Amino acid sequence: MQLVALKGFSTYPSVSCMPNAISPTPTRPLFAYVGTYTDGGKPWRGGVGSGVHQFAVDPDTGALQRLPNAPVAALHDNSNAPAYADRNPATLARHPNTALAVLYVANEFDGLTGPNTSGSVSAYAMGPNGALQFLAEVDCGGKNPAYISVHPEGRYLFTANYVSGDVSVIALRADGHFDSHRPARVYPNALCCGATPCAPGANVVPQAALDHEGFALSDHDGPHAHMVQADPSGNFVLVTDLGLDRVIAYRFDRDTGALSAPTSACVTESSGARHFIFHANGRWLYVVNEEASTVAFFTFDPGTGQLTWVSETSTLPAGFKGTSFASNIQMLPSGSHFVVLNRLHDSIAIFELDASTGAPSCLGEEWTRGSFPRSCTLDPSGRYLYVCHNKQGDNVTVFAVDGHRLHFTGQYIAVGSASMLVFSH
């Protein structure tokens, strides 16, 4: 494991408390951080970003404002590997313990040349004014970490490594820093399909795309992990693999961080499983299929980790013709609706869930007001939805949330190759 630390910097001063004294926690301002693609080597990235952008959030209007007296964006320059100074800090995750002001950033690169053989994860301290300061960086053990998440208990961090088609588990210390004594553990997706052989899906246009005369083609040449996240119970870790057209559920060991006993379920061949969300009941799972522009609905057994495919539903309007790539999914505060982003159609598809069965149905679409929407995030209050546009979009747009209705606020925030936004108090 490579570990790069900022010398002489401490984020967690010791605090002594008097017995029986109650110290109210001051309300911290709300901050937003936007990851970007800084390397244009891949055409879908855009590659004009300048690092992780830092904003203060107006809680009344949802507006994002640049931090005063702080750089526009934070980007760690790894002097030990200058070839990777711009490393696509595109995917972000905050430590779940709000008392630990630590932000993790996945640096999405292949490591095909130079001294490194894998992508990496960086940790930043979030200062009282919201400004980021680099803490450390570790190898994740896989190539192109396209997604990062932290287990709800905060002891382990996961990366979905797209190019190498595997999942990494990185141990964290109690203070949120990387545990430098425990290297990343890597789990290849191709070994996780049980009795059913894991083979790449066909690299052809999926039937769902043919139904709208699209030409979606992508990476069915082998395994390509796209998202990793624990289930609501924290007992399992789920992974979507676009190349294998599968969702994989690992049993998670809280003590060791080990992943074991994987089970998997398939989406329609060539559909390209990308991102997912759970319903609050922990039993309904919704998977965005990038290539087919559909949502696959699964039931999930939180006791065994068993996934059962139920249905797939288009994210595009009836009568649409052409190519589009679904990207991200977000549950709305009501818990009875979710939204899905469509790239090229540049829309937010709004879905309603059947209260008894969980089956989704599309109610309509809202224009994203940008190009190639990659991800969307709700603010902590659930009042505003933020949409990041990469490639030629280069902005973040803001929508007010009214039940299942979205209303554009008129706010555009310029961010080159915006990939993902997270909030922190």
From TrEMBL:
GO molecular function list: 6-phosphogluconolactonase activity
Biological process terms in GO annotation: glucose metabolic process
Stretches of the chain forming a coiled coil according to its record: none
Keyword Nucleotide-binding: no
UniProt cross-references to Pfam families, sorted A to Z: Lactonase (PF10282)
UniProt keyword terms in alphabetical order: Carbohydrate metabolism, Glucose metabolism
Top-rank taxon, per record: Bacteria
InterPro entries recorded: Cycloisomerase_2, Haem_d1_sf, Lactonase_7-beta_prop, WD40/YVTN_repeat-like_dom_sf
A GO cellular component annotation in the UniProt record: cytosol
Record's keyword annotation contains Nuclease: no
Similarity field: Belongs to the cycloisomerase 2 family.
Protein name: Lactonase family protein
Lineage, highest ranks first: Bacteria, Pseudomonadati, Pseudomonadota, Betaproteobacteria, Burkholderiales
